Amino acid sequence: TKIHQFLQDLPKCEHHVHLEGCLTPELMFTLAARNGVSLPDTEKRPEFSSPATLYERYEHFTSLDDFLSYYFIGMSVLQQQGDFEALAWEYFQKAHADGVHHAEVFFDPQEHLNRGVAFDTVVSGFVAGCRRAEQEYGMTTKLIMCFVKHLPASDAQKVFDLAVEAGHFESGALHGIGASSSEVGPPKDMFKEIYATAYSKGIRRTAHAGEEGDPSYIRAALEAYKSQRIDHGIRLIDSPSLLQQVAKDEILLTVCPVSNVKLRCFDHISKVPIRTFLDAGVRFSINSDDPAYFGGFILHNYCSVQEAFDLSIAEWRTIAENSINGSWVEQERKSELL
Ligand code: HPA
Ligand code: ZN
Questions:
Q1: End-to-end CA distance of the chain
Q2: Which of 101, 144, 252, 281 has the fewest CB atoms lying closer than 10 Å?
Q3: The domain that contains 309 carries what CATH number?
Q4: 10 lies in which domain range?
Q5: What does the pLDDT look like over 204-228, one tens digit per residue?
Q6: Ligand 1 mutation pick, 112, 184, 211, max ligand atoms within 8 A of CB
Q7: Is 4 annotated as a binding residue?
Q8: Which residues face 107 on adjacent strands?
Q9: Residue nearest to atom 4 of ligand 1 (CA)
Q10: How far, in Å, CA of 249 to CA of 221, rounded?
Q11: How far apart are CA 92 and CA 265, in angstroms?
């Protein structure tokens, strides 16, 4: 349809996609076989029998933690530099087809290091995927390293130190830090020292907050982390005062509508606070989060929002402009995209 073509053509920026969340069951099985990694015993976990049975299971996530248990098993098949590169390249091909011009992508190094994969294997593989997307598609890309909240903060500190010592932030191999994984349970400010160091070095900062957790998680990300963006942030609907502050401070929310329904944050896309955010002047981008697990990439998210909210062309232009302006990219590139 006409609106679908308009959404396809809209110059999109993606700010919230986990590269490990782009691992399709097909690639998971291929890499497991190639690398000799065993997936769970199918006697006990029949959903690991085939890509088809996994896809079926992915239709029934009950929570963020239920999803994460699959996400962390899936990524265990990633072993060699070429695996990381192939994963990133698969994502960029899909993103390009969906009309993404600029992508800032997350990855979770701690999980890979814990499995004995070298930090450099992970980073050099993902960087190679990014450079290929830049060369073949003229996309701009940025890598954001996430710390995971279910592992000790000392592990996060180690991986941050490795990245700083390798000069990855200065060289541009890495562009910022984030925090992801389980929300309710771990301390809200567990990476406070790392974020303070990042702030003092001028390293960009974002954090997942207010996905399953209440607005106090968002306040902690803004205050304890001096986070410049909030990933998800949907529970802002429970704090009108914080919502006003986020609007006034022009903090970009990276919203993932399909993810929110798949992980039962809302029972339908129409409950995602798109209208509330637009009316309150809260800036947000629309993103895919873990597209291989949630059944669709960024354009599917744009189209699902359109079906539920019937936005005007002007509103879509506002969303596209806010996501360009909220990107961590040079002004010259923003001007090109606008
Ligand atoms: N929330 C928290 N951590 C994550 C997510 C998410 O939606 N996806 C991958 N890691
Ligand atoms: Zn996420």
A1: 24
A2: 281
A3: 3.20.20.140
A4: 2-337
A5: 999 999 999 999 999 999 999 999 9
A6: 211
A7: no
A8: 145
A9: 181
A10: 14
A11: 27
Q: Enumerate residues 6+ apart whose C-beta is below 8 A from 78.
A: 20, 23, 31, 84, 87, 112, 117, 122
Q: How far apart are CA 214 and CA 270, in angstroms?
A: 20
pTM of the predicted model as reported, rounded to 2 decimal places? 0.98
**Ligand 1 in contact with 211 (CB < 6 A)?**
yes
Q: What ipTM was reported for this prediction?
A: 0.96
- Please list the active-site residues: 211
Indicate whether residue 64 lines ligand 1 (CB < 6 A): yes
Nearest residue by C-alpha to atom 2 in ligand 1: 181
Burial of 310 (0-12, 13-18, 19+ CB in 10 A): exposed
| pLDDT given at position 166 | 98
Residue where the block lists tokens 């999980």 = 111
Question: Would you say 284 and 294 are in contact if contact means Cβ atoms under 8 Å apart?
Answer: no
Please tell me the distance from the alpha carbon of residue 182 to that of residue 151, in angstroms, as a whole number. 10
State if residue 180 touches ligand 1 by the CB under 6 angstroms criterion. Answer: yes
Select from 272, 278, 277 the least CA-distant residue to 259. 272
- Pocket perturbation via mutation, ligand 1, pick of 22, 63, 289, 301 by most ligand atoms within 8 A of CB: 289
